[in-house]
Amino acid sequence: MKLKDKFFIFSLISSVFTAMVTHAQVKTGIDMLQESNFSVLVGKRVGLLTNPTGVDRNMRSTVDILYAAKEVNLTTLFAPEHGIRGSELAGASVANTVDKSTGLTVYSLHGKTKTPTADMLKNVDAIVYDIQDIGCRSYTFISSLGNVMTAAAQYNKEVIVLDRPNPLGGEKVEGPIVRTGFFSFVSQFDVPYIYGLTVGELAGLINNERPVEKRCRLTVVKMEGWKRNMTFRETGLPWVLTSPQIPTPEAAIAYPMSGIVGELNAIQIGVGYTLPFQVFAAEWVDGEALAKAMNRLALPGLYFRPITFKPYFGISSGHPVSGVQIYITDYSKAMLTEVQWYVAQELHRMYPNHDLFKLGNLKNYAMFDNVCGTSQVRLQLTKRYQVEDVLKLWRGDAEAFKVRSAAFKLYE
Question: How far is 332 from 277, CA to CA, in rounded Å?
Fold first, then answer.
């Protein structure tokens, strides 16, 4: 390729990226906070829970924005799973550290402790939360928010949520609420697996439904221009990977389609390849046959294409695997979380000697059950591997939750 051609392509990419950043239709909470001259933070010692997704529409870090603002006294930083710079692997313990650019102490909320202590909050009056979430209950950033709210209530601190879009939109609600005995850091609240709220709306629901003595002083800095039916691409905002395996908004949408079955460690779901959460594949699968089987089901809004690839790491690393890639043809009709149950059904029918619940050699199914919010999904599905056996349970809470959460919605 000639140098001038390379330069043209680079210029085109740069111009598209610049347009995406500077002409955003939606203003997030950090954008609105700046426009208000940080009014809700004036006179307060501020702690900040954030990660690399905490940026304004011009890609400036919320850490740098608050630290540089003369109206703000930023004293402390807090790190969620993956760390404040996003460099840690899923589930890895994150250590306390010092932020190089500001010199501020960074307290980990995904290490020895997951809830801020009195010592961590001694120089804090208000805790600001600014993290891009992906709208699934098992994604631990909202659990960290819940723990911050608990500590704030205990130590009389304020929580200020800088709101951001839900990449799954504000209309999808799927999966059961968490049953007694299955609350955990990946299912901390009794909400459906896909809950259809922004993080600010979710915080309002969580806070209001707690006993009065356990509620914190909560402020949500609302977005401007966001609509419930928006895809993330339609917001005009830049996407910053929310964790190492969610590099795009499309991966965020795919996460609930395969992530629960992924907990079985039995089949390649694209983690370890270029399509995280967007495929189901194995060395023992005929991709053409599986694609035909899945498409015969005529699942609304979905299409399955055969695919063969070699994962770079993870399950079947370096070995050819075959399976299906998921395409969404009508997002409004697609039932995201149910895809994995239908794949499990068809794989068991085609390959009865390859039981997904045995291939991973798990000693127990605690993580799978906790992510589901109940053991009954596993117990009912594995009786005869028919999705119809779990649909009543999986769909049963959605409509009631839509009614329950309506009072906390901040956007149309």
Answer: 19
